[in-house]
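Pinned message: reference record for Major facilitator superfamily MFS_1
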Amino acid sequence: MLRERQKYKVFSWLLFDFANTSFSVMMVTFVFPLYFKNVICKGEPSGDALWGFSVSLSMLLVALISPVLGAAADYSGKRKRFLLFFTLTSIVATALLSFSGPGMALVAVLLFVLANMGFEGGLVFYDSYLKQLASAKSIGRVSGYGFAMGYLGALSILLLVQPLLSKGIVLSNMPNVQLSFLVVAIFFALFAAPLFLVLRDEKKGDRPAISFTAIRCSLREVKYTVQHIMSYPDLARFLLAYFFYNDAILTVIAFSSIYAQNTLGFTTGELIRFFMLVQTTAIAGSLIFGFVTDKIGPKRTIVITLLIWFVVVVAAIFADSKELFFYTGMLAGMSMGSSQAASRSMMTRLTPQEHVTEFFGFYDGTFGKASAIAGPLVFGLVSAQAGSQKAALASLLLFFILGLLLMTRVRSVGSGSTRVT
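Predicted structure (tokens):
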């Protein structure tokens, strides 16, 4: 009976990944960025800058609040309430974006910032459940399952909205594109619900989720983390490595649709097929490398995937045809799911149990989100100065190299054993 209950808990956790990745692929990576530029901003060049500002602002805000809220969740034991709040924020804001249209740039920016904050902020609490759901021997496998389910969700939402986008992401097809955003919100809500029905928070008395005491304890915990992070040298080195290579990965993801359309002339239909292919290979990569992670450890797996990413970027730079870019996308999909799953496994191994949500706040928040600010900024500056998106893509190789070098200095050991006293 206990084993069956645990299976239900793990499945509900995996299903949440299936749900929220629909937001990521539709609202951050593919449809909404093009809709924002081509329809809301009417194709004006300022649309690129405004879009970049929206992404950076949402990431900056999450980076600032995640550690504090993560510590508050640890103190109160009400992790699920925080996850529910962020999830509902993302769902409601996404639904409201279905009413956005030409000339509503500021409203769209506000709603997107709220939606993306809800999505990214919720990941802090969602990822922290992994340590209580998986054993030390199965963390890599379960983490890989999660990302595989996420990419399956992304593939599912693309198939679901494909008829609505058949005429392109343009003004003449605006009602259908708007409806696709509402479909995303419903999809997210429907498949996220089981997690909140099945998982339970640990009991910590009657401590409120938010109170002066909770905030004071949260700030004290954050101060402790900042002051003593170097007491866990392997964790510190991993987080720094993650900052650099995740910076590059997130930038590739954020600019993939724009790069494909502007540099290689992809149509909307070709972009849909491209992202479906990427999600499919990402599922395979997450599953395969989930097992690989449990066999050889997350450190070696991350090193392998970073080498693959290096090949992906070089191939994309020299891609002179849509067919070659499709093959490059397949390789990127394989490394995308595997690198993220192995990174989450590595973080879980290096994180002490008593600070799991707080440290994941730094992992998903301070480091993860801050890297999403720096990467697009560098890409945009290089692209503007060089007048070439290929030159901007080449600049990301430096981030992968720095991440790889730092990663080789991390000892992959069990959680809590890396502390220096």
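Pinned by admin. Summary line: The domain at 2-196+213-407 is CATH 1.20.1250.20 (Growth Hormone; Chain: A;).
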